[in-house]
Amino acid sequence: MSNIVIQKTPVVVVGSGLAGLTATYKLLQQKTPVILIEKLDKFGGNSIKASSGINGAFTSVQQSYGLDDSVEIFLKDTIKSAKSLGDLQLQETLVNESKKAIEWLQQEISVSLNIVNQLGGHSTKRTHRSDGIPPGFEIISKLQKKVLEFEGLDIKFNSKLISIDSQNDKIIGLKYLNLLDNSEIYLKTNNLIVATGGFGFSKKLLQKYKPELVDFPTTNGAQTLGEGQEIISSIGGSLIDMEQVQIHPTGFIKQDDRENNWKFLAAESLRGVGGILLNSSNERFVNELETRDTVSNAILKQKDQKATLVLNEDMYQEFKFQIDFYSKMKLLEKTTIAEKFKDDTTKVIELLKKYSQQPSDSNNKDENIEIIDQYGRESKQHVFKNVSADSIIFSGEITPVVHFTMGGVKINTNGQVINTKDQIIDGLYAIGEVSGGVHGANRLGGNSLLECTVFGNRVAQHIINSDIDVDDDIGLKLKQQLVL
């Protein structure tokens, strides 16, 4: 008779963003109990604010659009954006499992992801989202609902990790703080998944690793203080690429609260659907779909380190749900070209006409003349048609912001934490922005939600597989069936 023993010791997950929720769902699905610790009083972390989408290569949605993509092309884009930094094995895992991640969200979590856009640094359209709803909000909302349907989940809101207990490089427990009554609680566990996010709001860690960005505005929530990185490092966990901090080029400057250090992110899809950037002289100055670091540096070279994002009604219809939100928050303004640019109306009209030229606009209809964008922009999902002084536009003022920390805890492809001796800390996992090595020097838009989904699933599956004690062929077959 086979002897297959599935351990019932709870796995502790710290953080309820997409990485933590993905791992939690996968574990509960396999009847592994989970204690979920969350610093805030609600699910979602920074993931819930994601507004552009999740990447996938060679997906059925891409194929329905007739798009030519592959994991090889996606990997090349990822490595180029990372400037050859980071961990190649992690990057290969990310792109190789991207199609599976999209299918998992569609089939298991019921997220349609039926639209694809092209973001900066991508060779083609591969960033998936659903029609009419922000992707981060949709994914977190539906995943949260699924998670809450399971038994075996113990949620600790308003609680934060304060220490990890290990013995001989093996996890034996942790301590967390109840923020409501300041009590400290110790939990025994053999498996701890840390998904606490980045450190983009921590002046202390920015001062240590990237001091020139200490006073930069940020899109990060106040909970992203890098505590996961610090605590894991304190027990011997290795850190990688901590100085690699991403500046996102487009954080909205709210006109009635200009000096606020926290900024709403202007989604990269606003440029992906055709939006352009103008400097204070009302001139274009960059390929708006270059990588985030390149566009950010171009804005920072302008005399006021700001730019104006401009879209038209076709672009509005493509991204209506998000633009309506930005307009409601008074981050985007609906005007005519003449109202917005006044003395520069004629200049802006000519600029928009030039940007919008297509090969069919050539006077010589018999020749296939390629009209090259002056800044090398190839992807223009929508352009500015029939431009006049009365043309409706949507515009907003933006500036570069601290957005994502690529560096973090060193992990392997199963999300296991690696210590400073290059050895695994048994039972300790790090996923999402708390980990490092996936994105190198610069993250591609759409790769954050993908990282959370891919490695959240991988970590949970590794724990499930590790918790099966197999002593015969029947058990071995069962274990093999559980492997993704």
UniProtKB/TrEMBL annotation:
Keyword terms: FAD, Flavoprotein, Oxidoreductase
Pfam families: FAD_binding_2
SUPFAM superfamilies given in the database record: FAD/NAD(P)-binding domain, Succinate dehydrogenase/fumarate reductase flavoprotein, catalytic domain
Cofactor binding description: Binds 1 FAD per monomer.
Matching InterPro entries: FAD-dep_OxRdtase_2_FAD-bd, FAD-oxidoreductase_2, FAD/NAD-bd_sf, Flavocytochrome_c, Succ_DH/fumarate_Rdtase_cat_sf
Keyword field contains Nucleotidyltransferase: no
Cofactors (names): FAD
Any one Gene Ontology molecular-function term assigned to this protein's record: FMN binding
Enzyme class: oxidoreductase
Record-annotated FAD-dependent oxidoreductase 2 FAD-binding domain positions: 11-449
Documented EC number(s): 1.3.1.6
Classification via Gene3D superfamilies: FAD/NAD(P)-binding domain, Succinate dehydrogenase/fumarate reductase flavoprotein, catalytic domain
Similarity comment text for this entry: Belongs to the FAD-dependent oxidoreductase 2 family. FRD/SDH subfamily.
Function according to Swiss-Prot or TrEMBL: Irreversibly catalyzes the reduction of fumarate to succinate.
Protein name: Fumarate reductase
